[in-house]
Amino acid sequence: MHKIEILGFVAATLTTMAFVPQVFKAWKERSTTDISLVMYLVMLFGVILWMIYGIYHGSLPITIANAFTAILVFIMVVLKLKYK
């Protein structure tokens, strides 16, 4: 594996994991009042497009990171709708 691929995986891990505390907090507190549904819907659409881009270019870091991010963002959308 090339060093640039390792860099891609590290970057992907950090940016994806940035969503974990928000998801955990919303789930734990059962509150999403300060969360923008529109922002998360736009983000979800964007990461799905990035995932497709990663698949097209055969980039594992881009594909995996955006797949996991899409799951986390989707969970936030569900929590937002559930705790509305």
TrEMBL record:
The organism's superkingdom is given as Bacteria
How does the protein associate with the membrane?
Multi-pass membrane protein
Q: What is this protein called?
A: SemiSWEET transporter
- Transmembrane parts of this sequence: 6-24, 36-56, 62-81
Pfam families tied to this protein: PQ-loop
Q: Which UniProt keywords apply?
A: Membrane, Transmembrane, Transmembrane helix
Select a single GO molecular function from the record's annotations and give it.
sugar transmembrane transporter activity
